Amino acid sequence: MPDGKRRALLKAGAGALPLLLLPGCGSGSHPSTGGGGSLPPGTPAITPRGLHVSFTGDPQTTRTLSWFTDGSVDPGGVIEYGPVTPDMDARAIATAAFPSRAEGTATATYGVDALTHRATAADLPADLPLRYRVGSAQGWSAVQLLPAAAGENFRFCHFGDHAQNDASRAVRDGVISRAPDFTIIAGDLAYANGEQSLWDSYFDMLQPLAARIPIMTAPGNHEAKDGGGQGYSSRVAQPGKGTYYSWQYGRVHFVHSTGGSLLGSDAASAAALVDELLWLELDLASAALQRAAGRIDFIVFVQHYTIWTDDDGRNPANFELVALEEQYLLLYGVDLLLVGHDHIYERSKPMALGLPLPGGYVQVTQGGGGQDLYSVLANPASWSAMAVARHAFTELSVEAGRIKGTTWAVDDASNELRRDGSLESIDQFEIVARGATASAGFARSARPRSAVLADIDAVIAHTRQRNVLHDLIEIGGEHLGP
């Protein structure tokens, strides 16, 4: 289905949303495929909350739904779903029986008396939006709508450091208004910092976005404060290991890394980082070979930490660590690096080794997702194309071998939020796919284990040093830590 028609159908379906609150349209009385049954009088209601969608399988034909229920008793969650067809009006979208259902799983949610439920809707028609609800006979969510898969031409949004405040909600609403095909959050989601109930309020806040637009994430340093990442990993559903993974949408290969954000002083987290680096080597080598063979156009790398920054207080970088991290980007020709961590917006020129370099990677730092902003150096480095302290998100449009980026601010130049919900375009850029000759230059077999781990002691030492330093300065109330 053409992109314009697909989006028009989704917008038409969105008109059903007010109906979802009518009696019988978002509760257990909603028509289904069966299996709900009636409950004995006095059975307590268990209402799903914190709905969020992600891709754990083929993005063209599957969607994975995650949600939470309070208490340790599993009500037996399922997802009921079906396509939104052109003949469906708003009431039919809200009330028609669902043709399909899938059983979910339930696991304990870290740090609270609750369960995390996950279920995957499969065999979806790629050209039609999806309507669904999750829950059980003890309580259902309202019916939600998801966009159809977009194919090779698609749009996605990126931000990090989201938190839970007015700016966070403004960024959330701004992303919703752009109706992307999915959104990437580059770490530091809830800022729970050990208070696990804050994850509950975060996903409640995120639900208007995350129940309607798939969310793909990476952990940040604040996720490490929740049981070394357990608070994060027990609540999200992502491919592979969950904390690091890769996936493909259209002709773009996405790689999500911890960037060492979950490395602590213990041997187990160090061993996990070793495993990740070995996996990363294989994945990037495979992606570079695919690009050289003409099967993909771009390699996009996602992590929380910046490689280079003009954030006033985090510059200069730890050059030893930068050199160790950057080797992966340069060896396999990563095209675009999406990060957060520094609470500013900054876009680099194509760069490498701290210098502008045609054919290098472009780093987009989008740390203005909601948390308090930082300051930009008065004289940014030569590799920087733009740096500004604004609450914002970046929208990226992929089409015909190009990635076109637009950064939308939700505040004005004095950092006052735009109360009318309008957005200001503060930056635009374009990345063109490498040609066949350039792509071939990065195509190589993965290095052997001995080569990948040749500097592992330095990697672990410098990563720990960075993580501890940021925590210590945060405790001291200085800028560098959050």
UniProtKB/TrEMBL annotation:
Residue ranges of the region described as Disordered: 28-49
InterPro entries found in the cross-reference section: Calcineurin-like_PHP, Metallo-depent_PP-like, PAPs_N, Purple_acid_Pase-like_N
Keywords, alphabetical: Signal
The keyword Glycoprotein belongs to this UniProt entry's keyword annotation: no
Gene Ontology MF annotations: acid phosphatase activity; metal ion binding
Start and end residues of each Purple acid phosphatase N-terminal domain: 48-143
Protein name as it appears in the record: Metallophosphoesterase family protein
Organism (species): Solimonas terrae
SUPFAM superfamilies recorded: Metallo-dependent phosphatases, Purple acid phosphatase, N-terminal domain
Domain Calcineurin-like phosphoesterase: 155-345
Pfam families documented for this protein: Metallophos (PF00149), Pur_ac_phosph_N (PF16656)
Gene3D superfamilies per record: 3.60.21.10
Domain of life: Bacteria
